[in-house]
Amino acid sequence: MHRGLIVQPGAIGDCILTLPLAAFMKDALRLGGIDLLGHTEYIGILPGRSCIDGVRSIDSMDLHRLYAKTEIFDLADPDPLITAFADYAWIATFLGEPDSNFEQNLIFTANCSHSAEVLTLSLKPPGECSEHVTDFHIRQFVHQSGLMLPPGSAQACDPLIRATEADIETGKKLLTEAGLECRGHPARDSRAGRPRHKLVVIQPGSGGPSKCWCLENFLAIARELACEGVEVVFLLGPAELDRFSDASFRSQISSVATYLTNLPLADVLGLLSCADGFVGNDSGITHLAAAMGVRVLAVFGPTNPAVYRPLGPEVTVFSSSSATFARKPSAKLQRKLLEVLTA
User: Fold this and answer.
1) In the chain, is it the N or the C terminus that has fewer CB atoms within a 10 Å radius of its CB?
2) Does 274 have pLDDT greater than 80?
3) Sign of CA dihedral 5, 11, 16, 21
4) What global pTM score does this model have?
């Protein structure tokens, strides 16, 4: 059967927000499978857990060749680029621009071995747009394909990523090694009739400092949850460690909760598979937690949640336009989050 490919050079959040388009293409075009070409450190977790059937490393291909001027672009016989795209009847790319050398060369390359449709999509909607980015992706695809496909909405969805039993075991092992008493996946524990402590994962960082809610807000929430008997784990990746490089910041975090650092993405997924709740900024890990069906409380500052809201069955978004969003604590917004978490 025909296969499809999406070229997605973005980070974790962008890749997860591509999943509704992948599912739409797979269903509407009746594709036998769909692959994702991107950075494997971000997309390697998707096969077997999502609608993505396979992943390919963008770093293993000489895609820079496609940026050459069309009049001098040349392919060998055989050529690794022809082979790379030979399996796909449909290719949607977020790399390159419409009517660019890249697009024209990709069309030529894909059609060297067979007839293929190549569509170049914009990653971000125009600034005045309030449509969710996933619906924007699907609408672009429908418009450019020329097919009479009904555009779907990604707003109400089941989990886009499903943890495996091995993921849950990985999460439980991480919690045990961290000295926490949480017993792991809620549904499994309730069937076993065992009491368990609730677990909330907090990630206080994001790709941009202006998108990060003041750290004291997360610390205050962690303190209140601890008083309610809830276990809290702070998740600190490279962005957080860079932002909180001062030892005093980590000391503040460790005074209220356990923190885990620099986990591989597969381990992060395992940890989230054991969580009852997640609190974070507009970040890739927030999108991952939401896509897994975890109860997510996402705090948005300068970015528009109407466009970039995490997708999942249990997502609550809190938005703040305060100029002090990243610099000063907000007791009012803390209370709102705690009301939802403890409800």
Assistant:
1) C
2) yes
3) negative
4) 0.93
